[in-house]
Design brief:
Blueprint lengths: L5 H10 L6 H8 L3 H13 L3 E4 L6 E4 L3 H17 L3 H8 L4
Antiparallel strand pairs: 1-2
Length: about 100
């Protein structure tokens, strides 16, 4: 899976609940429309969200489950801070560092 930015995760967290239009995403995030369009189009290009083009306006929906994104972010964290050592990560979480 392609790396997902924190800004993209903010969009995903909203779309996980229900398919939304760009305008609805703008209203829920408070971000300007050009920022939302950029983030949504990046997510579409990565294949993480899809678009229902049979309705107008288009509705965007998640192609992945929330736990898939969570696991990907945890893997990135383990790789970036613990050199990929899951045991070291578990020890850190359990206060055994």
């Amino acid at each position: 899976m392609n790396r997902i930015t924190d800004a993209e995760i903010n969009i995903l967290n909203i779309i996980f609940e229900e398919p939304l239009t760009i305008k609805e995403i703008v209203l829920k995030t408070g971000k300007n429309i050009s920022t939302v369009k950029t983030l949504v189009y990046r997510l579409v290009k990565k294949g993480i969200i899809g678009c229902d083009r049979y309705n107008n306006p288009y509705r965007y929906f998640s192609n992945v489950k929330k736990n898939e994104i969570l696991l990907e972010k945890i893997n990135q964290l383990v790789n970036n801070f613990f050199d990929g050592d899951i045991k070291e990560f578990k020890n850190y979480i359990n206060g055994k560092y």
